[in-house]
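[agent] plan:
  1. take the single chain provided in the ticket
  2. run structure prediction with default settings
  3. attach structure tokens to the ticket
  4. add a short note for the reviewer (M.T.)
[agent] executing step 1
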Amino acid sequence: MDSTSAPTSNKPYRASIVWRNVAVMSILHAFALYGITIFHRLRFYSIVFACLYHFVSGLGVTAGVHRLWSHRCYRATRPLRVFLMLANSIAMQNSIYVWVRDHRVHHKYTETSADPHDAKRGFFFSHIGWLLVRKHPDVIQYGKQIDLSDIENDPVVMFQHRHYTAISLFMSFVLPTVLPVVLWNENAWTAYFCVGVVRYLYTLHSTWLVNSAAHMWGMRPYDKTIQPRENYFVSWFSLGEGFHNYHHVFPFDYRTSEFGSGIFNLTTGFIETCVRLGLASHCRRPTDETIKRRIERTGNISLAN
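[agent] step 2 finished; step 3 output follows
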């Protein structure tokens, strides 16, 4: 899906700040900082629940909207798709439909004016800044040309898209606040700020590191001509999405890495477990020979490059 036939825009463009988004993100980060100061008040069960809730929401991004819906790396039964849709709603990173559109245009026009989070515009922009300004006209123009017919024909995806705000607010903030209160008598205030807000911001930044750090620091063993890098730090936080040079070379691989499952790629282990349970099938991957030939042709193992 990557393309070197990238647009070179001659359109005059000056980033226009979306102050509503700035306000929302500022408030969320202020709430998260406050939540960190009272995190010690959480009951043990709430801490465990927050970690598990983060893991589930992460799978909604990695195994769900990224590997399943954006790249069609494998097939999933409807029960698994519903689970991943709800998990993705916990992550609350826009609807699956919008996320897929932006991600497909990112792959096709990586680090050009049509890339929604172009890393060439700096760490801050590719990490969070792109959400605080209006999109470059090229992002909108080329985004409209992306084929989304497969997504539009998925009733699970379109149901979430139609009811995204209600579903995501309930899954991301209401449920993680109410459940600890009801099940083990957690303080509602503490549950909201810690299990709700802190956990949500942690998941957001873990995902954003793929757009920023994994495009700036690390090795390029598969294609030295592109910016995405292999970054174990990012892989740890993003459940296996930091092997980014490999992923941009072989975006259809359900593993996003040739190393398989493990502590740095828990998402692959999840998908393979779903295959064993009959919930997933048709996992795509390149042959070992194909990977080897690509390394020999375009790779570079230098840490500096």
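[agent] step 4 note for reviewer: The two ends are 23 Å apart (CA to CA).
[agent] ticket updated
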